[in-house]
Design goal:
It contains 3 helices and 18 strands. Strand 8 and strand 9 form a beta hairpin. The strands form 3 sheets. It has an 8-stranded antiparallel β-sheet with strand order 1-2-3-4-5-11-16-15, with no helix packed on it. It is mainly β and 330 residues long. It has helices at residues 2-29, 276-280, 315-323; strands spanning 32-37, 40-45, 48-54, 62-66, 96-100, 117-127, 132-142, 148-159, 165-175, 182-184, 190-195, 213-216, 232-239, 242-250, 260-263, 268-272, 289-291, 296-307. The protein has 2 domains: 1-30; 34-323, Distorted Sandwich (Beta-galactosidase, Chain A, domain 5), CATH 2.70.98.
Length: 330
């Protein structure tokens, strides 16, 4: 009888242990979880990979891969990987990133022999959470001679949303040094940018119409969207048999809102408030933006990854929510 009682207790204890361990794993996977790995942060939402933030030994920090709803891969794989069928153009188009092609005359956009780097300078905060995860990081924009042209403080918020969408805020404050100004130059080569999955392209690599589409808050569509201004822009197309898209929202408090869009038929998708010479055919320098010595400027963007087109995803309504929301202090 004692043996039976002991066996029953042992089975009960074992079952209870499995239940507790399983519950712990489920709880640990809930919400937005940010793990610090070698040279990168791994960001998961309810146990599923959303993206990784690469910051060590890179030309500039960037996110790759970025997985949208239902774990659809929303970014081109090259040059981080070399899958068959992807065009090997623009090696500086890495996942999702922020930079500019002319900062005090220096190129921080490309990866030619004459480019400059944005160097990670530490994390202020890395915080997981049930409703959102937050990353606050510092960076130095370093010239050819090693001097710091400017610095930035970026706040990145990833939200715990239903599986049919992903929501991500990117906020960056650019700070000029105390003794000299910073001029963000008049060029189309910038600024808040991502390179989308190849299957989403408006034009395929054979220069024929692709299956993707571009639409703006103004109603302008497809080929007519490049260099135009709008509150938001949405780029959608097929991925693994489903239609998915990305809408980027330009916050109404941003300087020069609504921004111009450097959005290309081959999948480059960027908000650029500085390239007036290229976009508007204005005299070179018209789009220059100066940050005075010791001064700072902040830009805010939201990335809304969704299923379907802009109507299915109610992009206009979601932008209106963002435009009237209050982003809490971190």
């Amino acid at each position: 009888m004692r043996v039976k009682t002991f066996s029953t207790f042992r089975v009960f204890s074992f079952s209870l242990g499995l239940f507790v361990a399983s519950t712990f794993r489920m709880c640990a996977a809930e919400g937005v979880q940010i793990a610090q790995l070698e040279g990168k942060l791994r960001i998961e939402i309810n146990g599923q990979l959303f993206t990784e933030y690469h910051y060590q030994d890179v030309p500039r920090p960037y996110f790759y891969p970025v997985l949208g709803p239902e774990e659809l891969a929303m970014t081109r794989k090259w040059p981080m990987e070399a899958p068959p069928g992807e065009e090997h153009d623009h090696p500086h188009h890495r996942g999702l990133w922020y930079t500019h092609g002319e900062v005090n005359g220096l190129d921080f956009w490309s990866e030619t022999t004459n480019y400059c780097k944005i160097v990670h300078d530490g994390f202020v905060k890395i915080q997981s959470g049930a409703e959102r995860g937050v990353i606050i990081s510092k960076d130095k924009w370093v010239g050819h001679d090693g001097s710091v042209v400017c610095t930035d403080l970026r706040t990145l918020r990833v939200y715990n949303r239903p599986g049919d969408e992903r929501l991500f805020d990117f906020e960056i404050t650019l700070q000029a040094p105390p003794d000299k100004p910073v001029i963000l130059g008049d060029t189309k080569e910038g600024t808040m940018a991502t390179r989308l999955a190849e299957t989403m392209r408006l034009q395929n690599k054979d220069k024929k119409p692709g299956a993707g589409h571009i639409v703006m808050s103004t109603g302008v569509r497809d080929e007519a969207t490049w260099g135009k201004r709008a509150d938001w822009c949405d780029y959608y197309g097929p991925i693994n048999g489903k239609t998915a898209g990305l809408a980027i929202f330009d916050h109404p408090d941003n300087p020069r809102h609504p921004t111009w869009w450097h959005v290309r038929d081959y999948g480059l998708f960027a908000a650029n408030p500085f390239g007036l010479h290229d976009f508007e055919k204005e005299p070179k320098g018209t789009g220059d933006f100066q940050i005075g010595p010791g001064q700072a400027v902040t830009f805010r963007y939201r990335f809304y990854y969704h299923l379907g087109n802009e109507i299915d995803a109610q992009v206009a309504a979601r932008y209106n929510e963002y435009a009237h929301s209050k982003l809490g202090a971190e």
